[in-house]
């Protein structure tokens, strides 16, 4: 038993000595086979990868206790560059040699129990070589715990100290331990990495929690052989993966870097290793050491031998290659030069500078590249140049700016930067000073972000701010605060507080813009210390004494810190109590905008904002545009993990329409970071004051009239703090302010004077110098090279090689040009600017703008020895040549431009992007290999094959082949290859051919991407993409010598016409010019014959061709036949038959537009005396018009004749036609509206020779017409003696909708009955379907279903009278109609059916109305104006050919303006004799405007028409815009369809609601109805979508009063728009009204209070520091209503007082004016006085007074818009705020209206003027208890009391604030009156006391 126990004990003791932890025994040499592999690429097979593989022998020898020696030898290197996994590694002997040189020296390292200690190596071992050693030793780092088999710990390694998990398995039988070690390289205490270029972005913690853009992990598998004395690693396998996901890591795609290591023990020998006799230095631990990685750019690899000569060679190469055009590799060459400069030292810099600084192009490149070197050497070089003054101020500014922003914040860099700022940066706000301090602050920000020690730079900037404050220099203070804002360090808060109102006593005296700048400076600090910034900004916001703008900016900064729900609810609660609507509107809109955000980092805050909005919504949901607002648009895509947000802030000061401050900010979310790429702000103060003519802000306001004497009569009057006029702006990028600047009043005035062409003729030296230099010729060339972005992230891999993910963006921009001017006559030495208006100027300019940009993304290995990885390059080239000769003759109104023809192919824009797998090694640079990641053969064959059917017939084969050919010829983009040899399936080519001018513009797009392998966003980018826009010459018959554009206006416009503009009926088939002449002669003869007869027919019927839509008239005109003539029926029919082939009048701009008309119009008149009598009696609006000598044609012709009611007509009387005169009078087209949908049909059409009948039209729209019209047509067409046609239109303006109806009358009434029944039925169906669809929408507002009722004014030029018309409109579910009708009062109406001999108007039935009478003077509008008037402007663009043939285009504009109507037509024709034309015409009437655009053959192929009409919706004033179109080109349809997809989403964001309703497919309607003066209901109806918005706020008040009776001279087209503009401008003006018993302030607050005694009352005044006007009023005597008014301005003193005869006397400067009966106007010194009846009006706009109107009782004062917020007096401060209306002169709010009025009473020094009052402080007549003590109280504001020796005879109660003292310690009233504390004393109580308002005096009052 004892033996057994002993054996167990010995076994246990022995087992405790087993060693699992590996070690290397002394005097032993362990030999391993080592293999490491690194591969970069995409994880899918079939895509190219790049990498290296290194095989070697590793010998590790134990040379002492815990000390080992490692030697690497027998190195074999191989490169991988090809498709994975089919390609293989290729050996690289040169690379092996390079690595052998790096690793030739062995190193020592400490090693104990599996842990690697310090490394020791000779100095000859480079850092790169030592890191490769570290990669091997990293495999040996292992932490084994004996008693645990699974555990986690933080373990040191080459990547840092990272979270590591172990799993151990033991096989005791064979003495083996298997260890698995896994490392999470994202979870490290000390992670070894280097990140540059992203210091200005902020990490998005929430984004990174949801999605990691970079992940890395490593797995180690060990096999350890152990014995009792030692354990040895016999095998180790390492696999490490680095994953980069630019988008969502799950759905966005990944790129990976794989690193593998294999270490296998092959031999162990027992002998002493040989240690080299070298000095070994301690070189650190196992952690990777960065050395020269940043110096090595990943886009280049080359040997640097003689750096100076290489710089010179590279610089010369760069200059030479960019001397002409910029090649695509220019940015790459600039990067190479940058690489060389980074490797150079200061001596090299100096040598290159001395050699090239005198050559401008070389100098510019040197000064562009050296700052981008981003090292202390570059900064020292720049500092030396500035010391020696070798750089200009502008050169110094831009080089310092780029250098400080590019440099990393190392200690050497900070020292050099501090020296530059201290010695060479002026603290004055010059460009150099601003760039210096702001850039230095940005560098300090980078230092503070990367380390805790940034006290030196902060101390410099804090000292600068302190000195600026002590000097009270506003400009320096602003610069210092902006610099502190750039740093964004919490240590600056206590310094910024000195400038914040409420925190420092001296801060209140600083200007407003300093307060605003100080608040904004807290923004960046809030990202680091949000709690402190939230406390400060919330306190500022809650302080109502601070200016609203500062409070709003404080709220902006507060919300940037992402506060929690409690703070947001505090904010919302404060807004509920907020007195200022500006602040309340701003905060509400800001919270609402943030509540809609979808960005991950704002989710919590957005929810809190939505909670706050629920509290605020009922009160602030609707606020006007005059209040401050925040607009924000944001989008975040989860599958991209990227987002974009744009924010626009408007800060208004006093309710002006023009905001005071506007800020725009752009924010992006990408790669788990948040950045603000761009922020722009503009501040405008007082600029509006500077634009009135004659305003001089520097005028001494005390010279003419001493306003101070008046203001002394007020109690403690204080001027408003007014800023001097200025405009300022700032620019921020990535949260750092780059520049700010402003224009003060002097600079603005100088600029206005310099460029005011309309101003006085002054000599302007700067303009003169420019003109003289232009005459001699100016040649300039400017080149700029810029490395805009260098973002790098370098992390080590387990192999010892670093892997880098980097992005470079570099560009070179070049502008070159020569400009020369010839001015005739040549300007003299004393010429004035206005003389240029009469000179002839010839300008020659030859310029070119070239840009070359390159963006490079690299992922893989990057060392100075080897580069292997993915490289995506995007190159963009742009070249825009400009070669123009322009001649300007201002006097002749002629401009001619000549451009040389296109002779060579020019690539205007080229963009190429390609992704490569790249391998380069320094040993063999010629073996560089770049393989496209996606090779063409990688595209599966199935994607290149076309489907072929063996059973297809020959016809089908032909069709398929032809279709394929069509696809190729049209450049169909995504048509796959039609042969197996095609390798690029995604090709798109599109050319726009301008052969007329000899060139074509081609856009070609090629794309091959890897998305067919995996449909993720990243794979769409990988591959090859190209986009090119090319300008190519086109072959022409004769060479084009030049392209010439001539613009001629005025009387000479007809002389420049190359081709006479004429229109032909496209239906007329004319075979030769002889037939044309014969036809014209016949028409003229026929017109003459008809002119001699009294009887003629005036009906014209419209025609229509199949498939084309109606082109409409340019003015509404509609009428049915006016005369029924049974006796003349035979003659009419005879006339009709005779004129079928002869009288074809084509109206290109009218209803009867031949080829595409689908309606008819007719006006038939009877013959004989009845007709002529009616014609003569009706004047200008008669129903029949007299014939003239002009030619006349009937305009109905059609091949396919049919009506939609399927009525067929015989060829004998299918349509009735007659002539109508074209110049003096013309028949009107019939135009009526229907209750339901209008229907479409083509009227019968007769050709010149044959007439085809009984053919259905090919129109495709559905037939609908109103029942009323159907009944009417049946009723009227019972008369077989009539020949007429009526038309149904869907709009009152003559614009056809997509469905139109024409009912052509025939002698056989059965067809008409059928038509009527058909219409009736269709109308019923239409309504029933509409009602059904509406039933389900009862719960929605029906604003989108309201009918629009148009209102028209009819104008009769002969009678000079206006008659308003009623209008009827209705709308069905598919279309709407609106029309208006009027009846002329001069016509005799007879409704009897048999009165055919009398002229009568057609019945206006329900839904049908006639717009105008036939034969009125407005018939001319259907004609081409070119037949009547010459063109106003002619534009000819032609290609001048060598054979002198005309080639090009001609545009002519015709304008005819009547008293209330403007007709404009634009016609574009080809100079060659073709019938293609483009026509644009518009008619503008007082309450209606319409326009059309048509083009094609005779302007008939395509059309778009628009009409704007005023009217009513639900009895509310409304306006309607209707756009209709017919056939359109396919590209317009595609574009509009694509655009409409985004409309619902955009409408939702803007607050619109959507209703489901069927709309016409060719119609777009916008309706707006005014529901209040500032809100409208809006309805938008488009094909497929109906949107509406109720109570939409508009920025101005609508004039909704009763509309006056319009007359011809009231509104014309020319003054309609100025009236609208004037209405908007008047919105920014304010009027105050003071009458006997009440007054209304500028802010429309009415008060009832009368102070009618003999003291002057200050009504309104300019309350700035330098008042420009004061207006006072007083009663003449207490017993009358009469009062006198005094208007004091800086240039005049005006008194208006009543006279005995109830008239008003006016005196200006104590001299009577307007005293004579014949004089009604007086003007002097910008002050105008005139009378309008008994009312006197004074205008002084330059002083801020728009006008003062006084009629003896009521006084009205209107101030200019720029006086907003700057007035005071009884009229208020004019800031659109209601809470501060009762503002007294001391800027306190009065407690009652009476106290407010009393405060503005002017007290006289003596009572001789009649005012017997004075101001006195009063004692409260009781002793209230305050804070538990009985107190004595005195008023803090004085009260009106009678003077000494005067007795009050009338008193009034006023509420006054009182300050109270304990009764025991109270001062006397006299002491209180003398005390200065009363102005700042607190109000302890508010009580009512009696004030005296009228007194009687016994003696001399004092």
Give an overview of the whole structure.
- This protein is an alpha+beta fold and 1902 residues long.
- The strands form 10 sheets. It has a 24-stranded antiparallel sheet that branches. Strands 1, 2, 3, 4, 5, 6, 7, 8, 9, 12, 13, 14 and 15 form a 13-stranded antiparallel sheet that branches. An 8-stranded antiparallel sheet has the order 53-52-51-64-63-62-61-60, with no helix packed on it.
- A hairpin with a 5-residue loop joins strand 52 (1638-1640) and strand 53.
- Helix 9 runs parallel beside helix 11 (411-424) and helix 21 crosses helix 22.
- The protein starts with a helix and ends in a 5-residue tail after the last strand.
- About 21% of the residues have low confidence.
Describe the structure concisely.
The chain is α+β, with helices and mostly antiparallel strands and 1902 residues long. Helices cover 24% and strands 32% of the residues.
């Amino acid at each position: 038993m004892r033996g057994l126990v002993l054996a167990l004990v010995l076994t246990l003791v022995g087992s405790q000595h087993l060693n699992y932890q590996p070690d290397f025994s002394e005097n032993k040499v362990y030999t391993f086979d080592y293999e490491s592999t690194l591969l970069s690429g995409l994880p899918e097979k079939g895509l190219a990868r790049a990498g290296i593989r290194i095989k070697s022998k590793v010998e590790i020898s134990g040379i002492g206790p815990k000390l080992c020696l490692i030697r690497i030898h027998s190195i074999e290197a191989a490169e991988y560059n090809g498709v994975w996994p089919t390609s293989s590694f290729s050996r690289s002997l040169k690379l092996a040699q390079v690595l052998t040189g790096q690793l030739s020296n062995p190193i020592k390292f400490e090693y104990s129990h599996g842990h690697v200690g310090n490394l020791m190596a000779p100095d000859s071992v480079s850092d790169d070589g030592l890191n490769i050693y570290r990669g091997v030793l990293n495999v040996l780092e292992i932490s084994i715990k004996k008693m645990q088999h699974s555990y986690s710990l933080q373990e040191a390694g080459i990547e840092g100290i990272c979270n590591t998990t172990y799993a151990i398995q033991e096989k005791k039988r064979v003495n083996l331990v298997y260890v698995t070690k896994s490392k999470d390289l994202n979870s490290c205490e000390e992670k070894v990495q280097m990140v540059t270029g992203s210091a200005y972005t902020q990490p998005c913690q929430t984004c990174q929690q949801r999605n990691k853009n970079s992940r890395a992990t490593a797995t180690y598998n060990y096999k350890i052989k152990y014995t009792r004395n030692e354990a040895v690693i016999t095998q180790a396998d390492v696999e490490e993966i680095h994953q980069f996901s630019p988008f969502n890591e799950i759905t966005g795609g990944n790129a990976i870097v794989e690193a593998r290591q294999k270490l296998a023990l092959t031999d162990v020998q027992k002998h002493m290793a040989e240690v080299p006799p070298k000095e070994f230095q301690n070189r650190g631990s196992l952690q990777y050491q960065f050395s020269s990685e940043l110096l090595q750019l990943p886009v280049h690899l080359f040997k640097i031998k003689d750096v100076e000569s290489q710089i010179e060679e590279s610089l010369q190469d760069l200059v030479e290659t960019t001397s002409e055009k910029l090649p695509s590799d220019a940015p790459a060459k600039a990067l190479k030069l940058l690489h060389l400069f980074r490797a150079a030292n200061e001596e090299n810099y100096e040598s290159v500078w001395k050699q090239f600084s005198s050559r401008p192009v070389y100098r510019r490149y040197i000064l562009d590249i050296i700052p981008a070197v981003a090292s202390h050497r570059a900064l020292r070089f720049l500092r030396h140049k500035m010391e020696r003054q070798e750089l200009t101020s502008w050169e110094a500014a831009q080089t310092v700016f780029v250098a400080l922003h590019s440099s990393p914040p190392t200690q050497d860099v900070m020292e050099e930067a501090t020296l530059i700022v201290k010695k060479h940066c002026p603290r004055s706000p010059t460009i150099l000073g601003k760039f210096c301090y702001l850039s230095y602050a940005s560098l300090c920000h980078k230092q503070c972000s990367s380390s805790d020690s940034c006290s030196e730079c902060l101390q410099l900037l804090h000292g600068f701010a302190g000195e600026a404050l002590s000097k009270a220099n506003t400009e320096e203070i602003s610069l210092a605060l902006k610099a502190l804002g750039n740093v964004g360090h919490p240590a600056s808060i206590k310094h910024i507080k000195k400038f914040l109102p409420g925190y420092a006593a001296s801060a209140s005296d600083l200007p407003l813009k300093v307060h605003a700048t100080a608040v904004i400076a807290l923004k960046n600090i809030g990202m680091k210390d949000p709690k402190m910034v939230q406390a400060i900004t919330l306190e500022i916001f809650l302080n109502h004494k601070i200016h609203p703008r500062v409070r709003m900016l404080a709220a902006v900064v507060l919300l940037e810190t992402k506060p929690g729900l409690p703070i947001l609810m505090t904010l919302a609660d404060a807004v509920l109590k907020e007195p200022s609507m500006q602040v309340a509107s701003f905060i509400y809109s800001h919270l609402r905008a943030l509540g809609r955000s979808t960005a991950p980092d704002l989710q919590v805050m957005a929810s809190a904002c939505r909670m706050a909005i629920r509290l605020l919504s009922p009160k602030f949901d609707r606020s006007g545009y005059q209040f401050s607002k925040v607009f924000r648009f944001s989008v975040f895509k989860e599958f991209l993990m990227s987002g974009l947000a744009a924010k626009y802030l408007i800060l208004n000061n006093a309710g002006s329409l023009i905001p005071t401050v506007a800020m725009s900010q752009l924010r992006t979310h990408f790669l788990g970071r948040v950045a603000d790429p761009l922020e722009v702000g503009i501040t405008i103060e007082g600029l509006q004051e500077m634009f009135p003519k004659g305003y001089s802000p520097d005028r001494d306001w005390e010279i003419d009239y001493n306003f101070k004497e008046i203001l002394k009569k007020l109690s403690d009057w204080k001027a408003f703090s007014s800023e001097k006029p200025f405009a300022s702006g700032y620019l921020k990028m990535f949260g750092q302010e780059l520049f700010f600047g402003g224009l003060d009043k002097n600079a603005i005035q100088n600029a206005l004077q310099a460029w005011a062409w309309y101003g006085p003729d002054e000599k302007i030296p700067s303009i003169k110098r420019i003109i003289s230099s232009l005459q001699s010729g100016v040649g300039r060339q400017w080149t700029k090279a810029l490395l805009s972005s260098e973002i790098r992230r370098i992390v080590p891999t387990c192999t010892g090689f670093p892997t880098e993910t980097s992005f470079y963006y570099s560009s070179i921009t070049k502008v070159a040009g020569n400009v020369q001017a010839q001015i005739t006559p040549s300007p003299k030495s004393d010429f004035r600017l206005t003389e240029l208006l009469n000179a002839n100027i010839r300008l020659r300019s030859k310029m070119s703008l070239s840009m070359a940009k390159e963006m490079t993304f690299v992922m893989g290995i990057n060392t100075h020895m080897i580069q292997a990885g993915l490289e995506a390059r995007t190159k963009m080239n742009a070249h825009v040549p400009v070669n123009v000769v322009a001649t300007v003759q201002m006097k002749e109104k002629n401009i001619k431009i000549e451009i040389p023809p296109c002779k060579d192919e020019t690539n205007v824009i080229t963009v190429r992007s390609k992704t490569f797998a790249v391998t380069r090694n320094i040993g063999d640079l010629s073996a560089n290999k770049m393989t496209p990641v996606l090779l063409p053969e990688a595209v599966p064959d199935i994607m290149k094959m076309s489907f072929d059917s063996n059973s297809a017939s020959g016809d089908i084969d032909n069709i398929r082949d032809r279709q394929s050919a069509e696809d190729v010829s049209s450049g169909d983009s995504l048509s796959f290859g039609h042969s197996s040899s095609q390798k690029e399936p995604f090709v798109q080519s599109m050319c726009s051919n301008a052969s007329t001018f000899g060139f074509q513009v081609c856009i070609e797009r090629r794309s091959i991407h890897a998305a067919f392998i995996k449909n993720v966003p990243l794979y769409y980018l990988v591959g090859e993409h190209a986009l090119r826009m090319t300008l190519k010459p086109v072959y022409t018959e004769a060479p084009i010598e030049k392209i010439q554009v001539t613009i001629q206006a005025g009387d000479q416009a007809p002389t420049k016409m190359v081709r006479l503009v004429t229109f032909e009926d496209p239906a007329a088939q004319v075979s030769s010019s002889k037939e044309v002449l014969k036809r014209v002669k016949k028409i003229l003869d026929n017109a003459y014959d008809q002119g001699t007869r009294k009887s003629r027919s005036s009906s014209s019927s419209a025609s229509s061709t199949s498939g084309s839509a109606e082109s409409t008239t340019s003015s509404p005109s509609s009428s049915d036949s006016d005369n029924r003539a049974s006796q003349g029926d035979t003659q009419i029919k005879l006339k009709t038959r005779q004129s079928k082939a002869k009288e074809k009048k084509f109206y290109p701009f009218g209803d009867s537009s031949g080829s595409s008309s689908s309606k008819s119009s007719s006006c038939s008149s009877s013959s004989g005396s009845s007709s002529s009598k009616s014609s003569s009696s009706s004047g200008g609006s008669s129903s029949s018009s007299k014939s003239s000598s002009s030619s006349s044609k009937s305009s109905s012709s059609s091949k396919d004749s049919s009506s939609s009611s399927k009525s067929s007509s015989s060829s004998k009387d299918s349509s009735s036609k007659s002539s109508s005169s074209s110049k003096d009078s013309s028949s009107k087209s019939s135009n009526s509206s229907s209750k339901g949908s209008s229907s479409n049909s083509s009227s019968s059409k007769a050709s010149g020779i044959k007439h085809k009948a009984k053919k259905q039209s090919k129109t495709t729209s559905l037939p609908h017409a109103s029942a009323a019209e159907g009944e009417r047509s049946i009723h009227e067409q019972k008369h077989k003696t009539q020949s007429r046609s009526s038309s149904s239109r869907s709009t009152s303006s003559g614009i056809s909708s997509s469905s139109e109806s024409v009912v052509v009358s025939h002698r056989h009434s059965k067809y008409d009955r059928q038509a009527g029944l058909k219409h009736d039925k269709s109308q019923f169906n239409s309504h029933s379907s509409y009602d059904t669809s509406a039933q389900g929408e009862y719960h929605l507002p029906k604003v989108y279903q309201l009918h629009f009722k148009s209102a028209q004014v009819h104008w009769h030029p002969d009678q000079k009278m206006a008659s308003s018309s009623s209008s009827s409109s209705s709308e069905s579910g598919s279309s709407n109609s609106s029309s208006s009708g009027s009846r002329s009062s001069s016509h005799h109406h007879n409704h009897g059916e048999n009165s055919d001999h009398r002229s009568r108007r057609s019945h206006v039935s329900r839904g049908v109305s006639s717009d105008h009478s036939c034969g009125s003077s407005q018939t001319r509008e259907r004609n081409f104006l070119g037949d009547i008037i010459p063109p106003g402007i002619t534009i000819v663009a032609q290609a001048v050919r060598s054979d002198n043939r005309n080639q090009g285009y001609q545009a002519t504009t015709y304008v005819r303006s009547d008293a209330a109507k403007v007709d404009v037509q634009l016609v574009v024709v080809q100079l060659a004799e073709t019938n293609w034309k483009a026509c644009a015409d518009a008619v503008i009437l007082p309450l209606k405007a319409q326009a059309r655009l048509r083009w094609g053959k005779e302007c008939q192929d395509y059309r778009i028409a628009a009409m704007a009409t005023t009217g009513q919706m639900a009895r509310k004033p409304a306006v309607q815009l209707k756009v209709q179109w017919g056939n359109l080109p396919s590209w317009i349809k595609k574009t509009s369809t694509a655009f409409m997809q985004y409309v619902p989403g955009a409408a939702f964001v803007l607050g619109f609601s959507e209703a489901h309703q069927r709309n016409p497919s060719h119609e777009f309607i916008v309706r707006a109805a005014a529901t209040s003066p500032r809100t409208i209901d809006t309805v938008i109806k488009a094909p497929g979508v109906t949107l509406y918005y109720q109570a939409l706020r508009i920025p101005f008040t609508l004039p909704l009063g009763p509309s006056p009776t319009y007359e011809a001279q009231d509104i014309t087209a020319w003054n309609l728009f100025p009236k609208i503009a004037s209405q908007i401008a008047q919105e920014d003006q304010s009027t105050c009204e003071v009458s006997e018993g009440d007054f209304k302030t500028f802010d429309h607050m009415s008060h009832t209070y009368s102070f009618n005694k003999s003291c002057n009352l200050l009504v309104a005044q300019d309350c700035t520091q330098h008042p420009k006007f004061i207006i006072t009023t007083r009663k003449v005597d207490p017993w009358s209503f009469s009062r006198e008014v005094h208007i004091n301005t800086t240039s005049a003193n005006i008194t208006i007082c009543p006279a005995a005869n109830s008239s008003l006397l006016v005196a200006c400067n104590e001299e009577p004016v307007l005293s004579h009966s014949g004089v009604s106007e007086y003007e002097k010194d910008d002050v105008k006085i005139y009378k309008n009846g008994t009312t006197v009006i004074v205008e002084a706009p330059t002083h801020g007074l728009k006008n003062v109107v006084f009629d003896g009782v009521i006084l009205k004062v209107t101030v200019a818009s720029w006086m907003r917020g700057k007035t005071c007096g009884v009229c208020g401060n004019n800031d659109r705020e209601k809470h501060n209306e009762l503002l007294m002169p001391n800027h306190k709010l009065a407690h009652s209206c009476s106290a407010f009025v009393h405060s503005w009473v002017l007290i006289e020094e003596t009572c001789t003027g009649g005012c017997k009052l004075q101001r006195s402080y009063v004692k409260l007549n009781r002793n209230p208890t305050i804070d538990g003590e009985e107190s004595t109280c005195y008023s803090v504001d004085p009260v009106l009391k009678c003077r000494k020796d005067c007795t009050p005879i009338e008193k009034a109660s006023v509420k006054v604030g009182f300050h109270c003292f304990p009764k025991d310690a109270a001062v006397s009233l006299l002491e209180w009156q003398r005390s200065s504390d009363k102005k700042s004393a607190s109000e302890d109580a508010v009580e009512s006391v009696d004030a005296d308002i009228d007194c009687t005096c016994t003696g001399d009052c004092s």
